[in-house]
Design goal:
alpha/beta; elongated; homodimer; Rossmann fold; 434 Repressor (Amino-terminal Domain); 13 helices; DNA-binding
Chain lengths: 341, 341
DNA sequence: TTGTAAGCGTTATCAC
DNA sequence: GTGATAACGCTTACAA
């Protein structure tokens, strides 16, 4: 590759001038500008990013910590990554895919300290997320897909409006005529990590149920489909006798559908099912087609990356208005008025 | 972060010695070794990757060109990326996610020339892949998930054994008693890019059908589910009157399942369906559960990354034996003996 | 408006 | 075995 020195020589200017033409941090006279630019083109010059990074202290690389522990089902999460990667690209950054099996981040911090990473995007954020604190302490900028309970402080997030989504879901069920509904959430594991989404969705559901006067029963299930299948029996045997369920984890919804088919329970006639998080691609495979109110993952990933990068670039004002995503209610074939009015 | 200079001072050695302790490219005496290592630990030293990259000419970063054009269904492809990213990580490399909407790679080449990328992994490889030639011409190492028709030359690939997979699939159908089967492949678009997988799968199917004495009819469908649904009508109205189909693209299989359910066609009684490429997570949602013989995507991504990195590290002998992946035949609920023997 | 030169933190090539 | 000392290609004061 051509170096800056060669461009400078060809254009008959100093090396610094070449840099300033590129960065625009200095006023350059018309003729010089032209000469430099044409020299760059002639030599097919590209500034060396490693040299830029070394001299400038910024790599323009960010990492997405991608959770791979729950390999259960439907990697909804890919869409987040795609959105973030595309946004990064558009802004001249690069997104490294960082698969994580646990929540340890010492290696991430080390890599950032080694100058390779300017910032990090986190998923599956907990209310009190040790990773966020650790990264903050290490002065590494963090973007979140999700958010902690530290509302004001960490402003670099893209999160769902769980209250709004829960409200929309429950309202829909109420309008269909349901009186007793279930909420399927993830089993909170042995660890004391409380994923923020679970808490906010739960709170949203409770509030919405109260608002619309529905009786709400909570069920717990792990992410895999088999757990969802077992769950259906719990649901129908429950004294709560719900006529519909709203499920937070995709595995549960599918498991319920599967098992219902096997035991001859008719969906949505005998039980309505609404998923609060299932990717489009995944829904297309379900039979009957799952009704959903899912997060716009691509968009959210895009937003998280943009916010983080804007921060890295030193923008004071957040360019993007701080919004939460509701997700669109997609009525398909698993929701209807209750049978046993 | 602590720099090498600080470590050298603390350990009372020259900076070069610190580097050589790290790289092991020089014999270091016991006491010096100890002093340097302890100084490194005390200062929590990490070599600056940008400086290493600049001085060494290698960034230890590779990119995965991730196709996002066919947003139809089931991102099988995430698993490839996860495998590749994990392998890279394990080997001290980093994998940047590079979403691509088309097959242009000038920007990739420019980025590699800018020193950020040491190599590139390609997906959806064509028989004659212009991207491979362009990258080769630019002296950028390429790893493939898939492979071109240039068998010997580009040795850095991880591909399926399409002949073997087709053989296994057809053999299975033959043993079930099917005489006339269909092969569903992707519609070859307007462009003249011939994705290698399509060709090899086709050839494999033809050979296998001949071998087991089955009559084979080819059907074409685009990737989306709706196309798959329309396809079912083509299949049942076809004079070939097949009793089973083997589908290359996941969208088609699902569409067929969907439409069969709607029009009251019983699967597998009236028609057996076997998918040659559907991710686990996706299959769990189908009803009835799709029988498959899918590629081990994670493993293949892992392999492609390892091969590429081994090459980047200058290994002459390919460490990993050059194998092709068959994929495991998973008999689930969409395949059975034909009804109309 | 432009040029000069001091870093940035390594690798690699000499010497000793 | 170990220590200097040029690169590596850029950013960015500081001069002019």
């Amino acid at each position: 590759m051509a170096t800056r020195a060669e461009v400078a020589k060809l254009a008959g200017v100093s090396e610094a001038t070449v840099s300033y033409v590129l960065s625009g941090k200095r006023k350059i006279s018309e003729p010089v500008q032209r000469r430099v630019v044409s020299a760059m083109q002639k030599l097919n010059y590209r500034p060396n990013r490693m040299a830029q990074a070394l001299a400038g202290g910024k790599s323009r690389v960010i990492a997405l910590l991608f959770p791979t522990a729950a390999k259960g089902i439907a990697n909804v999460d890919l869409e987040y990554g795609l959105g973030a990667a595309a946004a990064a690209q558009e802004l001249g950054y690069h997104l490294v895919m960082w698969p994580t099996f646990d929540r340890s981040i010492s290696e991430v911090i080390a890599t950032a300290n080694a100058g390779l990473l300017d910032g990090v995007i986190l998923m599956e954020v907990a209310m009190q997320d040790e990773r966020v604190s650790a990264l903050s302490k290490a002065k590494i900028p963090v973007g979140l897909i999700g958010r902690t309970d530290n509302e004001g402080r960490d402003s670099l997030f893209a999160d769902r409006d769980f209250a709004g989504a829960a409200d929309a879901a429950v309202k829909y069920f109420a309008e269909l005529g349901h009186k007793r509904i279930g909420f399927v959430t993830e089993r909170r594991g042995k660890s004391d990590i409380v994923v923020a989404a679970l808490v906010r969705a739960h709170d949203g559901m409770v509030a919405a149920a109260k608002k619309y006067g529905l009786k709400l029963t909570q069920f717990e299930s792990s992410t895999d489909v088999d757990a969802g299948r077992r769950l259906l029996h719990q649901i129908i045997e429950s004294p709560a006798s719900v006529t519909g369920v709203i499920a937070l984890n995709p595995g549960a919804s599918v498991g319920i559908l599967q098992e219902a088919n096997i035991i001859g329970l008719s969906i949505p006639k005998d039980l309505s099912v609404l998923s609060m998080a299932s990717p489009e691609s995944f829904v297309s495979a379900t039979q009957p087609r799952l009704s959903t109110i899912s997060p716009p993952a691509y968009e959210m990933g895009d937003c998280a990356a943009r916010r983080l990068i804007a921060h890295l670039e030193g923008s004071k004002e957040p360019d993007l208005p701080q919004k939460l995503w509701l997700g669109e209610l997609q009525v398909r074939e698993t929701t209807a008025a209750p049978n046993n009015l």
